Amino acid sequence: MTIGEAILAGQQQLQAAGVEAGRLETELLLAQLCDRPRLNLWLERHHQLTPGQAEKLTDWLARRATREPLQHILGWAPFLDFELHVTGDVLVPRPETETLAQWAIQKLAGITGPRVLDWGTGSGCLALAIAQAVPAAEVHALDVSPEALRIARANATAYRLADRIRFHLGDGFKALADPTPFDLLVTNPPYIPAAEIETLDPEVRLHDPRVALVGGEDGLDCYRRLAGEARVWLKPGGWLLAEFGDGQADALTELFGQAGWSLEAVEKDLSGRQRVLIVRAPVHG
Ligand SMILES: C[S@@+](CC[C@H](N)C(=O)[O-])C[C@H]1O[C@@H](n2cnc3c(N)ncnc32)[C@H](O)[C@@H]1O
User: Fold this and answer.
1) What is the extent of the structural domain holding 14?
2) What are 37-42's contacts with CB under 8 Å, separation 24+?
3) Which atom of ligand 1 is nearest to the CA of 97?
4) Which of 25, 73, 163, 164 has its CA 20 to 30 A from that of 4?
């Protein structure tokens, strides 16, 4: 089978399985399999796949046709300048979370040697992005999932950022032993209402970890905890930046406002949806 024939066959197989971007995804699989940039696939469309490559492609396409995420098959997902290792133990980093990372990095400009906490680090995407962009930052990252932390650590090691990020295992702030307050907390907590899980695409519903998705009955459980608990972990006026889901902005501004936080902004992601809550800790004392 040639590369060109494989692209067409893969496109048809994936589209029949409900994968809209069947051609792109087949090309991404082939690019990794043949160790070539995607552009070269077209230039080398008459090139024959080896029997080993053809067999592996058949296996990968069959997995993708069951709606296993492309990123799990490739073993990595893009996030800003990174290609992060991912498995079913971590949420596949989403493009909209890049917006959250960029806002956090922007808020850190001008703070000398900031202490930063990534609450619910998953693959480590936010912690890595901040550690790389803000060399003077002391970055901490926590997660309740030991498997996620293992992957986050591996990603930090792969990008030579392991000595810049301290990882903590535990349920929320219980993971932290040192009470020194942070300048900024960034988080993309689980925020999907429990009953909505069954309505999501199979890639998410069947393959992202539940602990990374479900935020209680209304999706807001983690925000309630953060609004109540995070203030003592932040310096007075410290920043909290949180990603949230569609339709949650009003409930969140009310929730944090009632808990004494000052609302700075609700920012949109690249698709124009309200996505990032930016608040500042109460100035107490
Ligand atoms: C939506 S995922 C986000 C992962 C990553 N920050 C990202 O943006 O891709 C939420 C993460 O929070 C973690 N998590 C959920 N509940 C937690 C809790 N009570 N304490 C600490 N981490 C928690 C999950 O294990 C998961 O890794």
Assistant:
1) 3-66
2) 41/3, 41/7
3) 8
4) 73
Residue minimizing CA distance to atom 11 of ligand 1: 120
The reply to whether 167 falls in a domain is yes
Is the predicted pLDDT of residue 193 greater than 60, yes or no? yes
Domain assignment present for residue 199? The answer is yes
Task: Tell how far the Cα of 237 is from the centroid of ligand 1, in angstroms.
Answer: 24
Residue 148: pLDDT above 60? yes
pLDDT in tens, 55-101: 999 999 999 999 999 999 999 999 999 999 999 999 999 999 999 99
Strand-strand pairing, 234-243 and 262-268:
unpaired
pLDDT digits (tens, 9 = 90+) for 88-110: 999 999 999 999 999 999 999 98
Final residue of a structural domain among 19, 40, 66: 66
276 and 228 part of one domain: yes
> Atom 2 in ligand 1: which residue has the minimum CA distance?
212
For residue 212 and ligand 1, the question of a CB distance below 6 A is answered with yes
